[in-house]
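agent> step 3/5: call structure_predict on target 'OsmC family protein' (Tenacibaculum pelagium).
agent> reason: downstream docking stage needs a structural representation; sequence fetched in step 2, passing through unchanged.
tool.input:
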Amino acid sequence: MAAKTSSKVTLTNRNYLAEAKMRNHFAVIDEPLDKGGDDNGPTPVEYLLTAIGSCVSITLRMYAQRKKWDVGEIVVNVTQKEELTKEGIKKSLVEEISFEKEITEEQRVKLLEIAGKCPVAKMVKGETPIATKIIS
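tool.output (status=ok):
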C-alpha cells in the first residue's frame, strides 16, 4: 500500500509565517503585509487555488495523452470570486482553461467534463470528509 499523502504545517513565532513539509519538499506560507503578515510566501488560499489549477491541468494532460490529442501548453487560471448577497459575502472559484493548440468542439466538451474530475477539485467540492482532532 502506498504511503499516505500528507503535509505537515508548522506555524512559526513570526506572525503568520508557516513552514510546510510534503515528502522531501518544503513550502512557505504567509499573509500579506496588509493582513498582518510579512509577505514571505503565498497565502493558504493562493496555495489552494494553485493546487486546483495544477491538478486540473495535470488531469487534462493525462487524458489528452491517452487520447493522443496534442493540445500543447495548458493554462488554468483559478480565481476566487466574492459576491455580496443578502446572507453576506459568498465566495466561489472560477477556472479559466486555455490550450496552446486549437481543439475541436468535441474535444472542448470532453475536456471540460474531465476538468471536473480533478481529485483536488472534487475534495474542495465537498466529496472528501475531514476528520479533525487535537492531539497532545
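agent> step 4/5: record observation. The two ends are 28 Å apart (CA to CA).
agent> proceeding.
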